[in-house]
Amino acid sequence: MKRRPAPKKAAPKKEAAPKPPGAWAKTAAILGISELPEFLGFQRSTVHVWGYRKQLPKPDYPSINGFAAWNRETIIRWAAETGRVPRWLKKEAAPFEPEGGYRRKRRTKAEMAAAVKAGA
Questions:
Q1: Tens place of pLDDT for every residue, the chain, 120 residues?
Q2: How far is residue 8's CA from residue 23's CA, in Å, rounded to a whole number?
Q3: Rounded to an integer, what distance in angstroms lies between the CA atom of residue 10 and that of residue 33?
Q4: Distance between CA 44 and CA 52 in Å, rounded?
Q5: CB of 98 within 8 A of CB of 79?
Q6: Helix (H) or strand (E) holding 117
Q7: What burial class does residue 42 get, using C-beta atoms within 10 Å of its C-beta: 0-12 exposed, 13-18 middle, 19+ buried?
Q8: Mind spelling out the 3-state secondary structure of 64-95?
Q9: Helix (H, G, I), strand (E, B), or coil: what is residue 63?
């Protein structure tokens, strides 16, 4: 009895590069939860998780057609403060970025040892 050949493995899928936003994004004054993923260049599920975890800023308009909405400047300021600014928005977000950048400074070995001692 002959054996069937093993099925060929599919090539791993490459992640698609984020699409640049449509023309509406450059002029939109108010952004709803459904526009944020395209505006910021993240997946829809990621933005909804931020909302669920209360990581998005407080909505400027708590209910427009039943959904939260923000002014464009509010979202740009929040994105700059949290390091989530897309490339196409860098110039507009520059005034809102923190002075030291977004990333936390790494501790030295001596600082880590002092922190461990203080905790113990």
A1: 678 777 777 766 665 555 667 777 777 889 999 899 989 989 999 999 999 999 999 999 988 888 899 999 999 999 988 888 888 888 888 888 777 565 556 778 888 888 888 875
A2: 42
A3: 35
A4: 12
A5: no
A6: helix 109-119
A7: middle
A8: ECCEEEEEHHHHHHHHHHHCCCCHHHHHHHHH
A9: strand
Closest CA to 83 of 48, 42, 28, 44: 42
Through-space distance between the first and last CA atoms of the chain, rounded to whole angstroms: 69
CATH code for the domain defined by 24-96: 1.10.1660
pTM over 0.70: no
Give the C-alpha distances (Å, rounded to integers) separating 70 from 22, 23, 91, 107: 18, 18, 20, 36
Task: Report the side by side order of strands in the sheet with 67-71.
Answer: 30-32, 67-71, 61-64
How far is Cα 108 from Cα 77, in angstroms, rounded to an integer?
31
Tokens of 70: 């923000």
Residue 38 has which token pair?
Answer: 């395209």
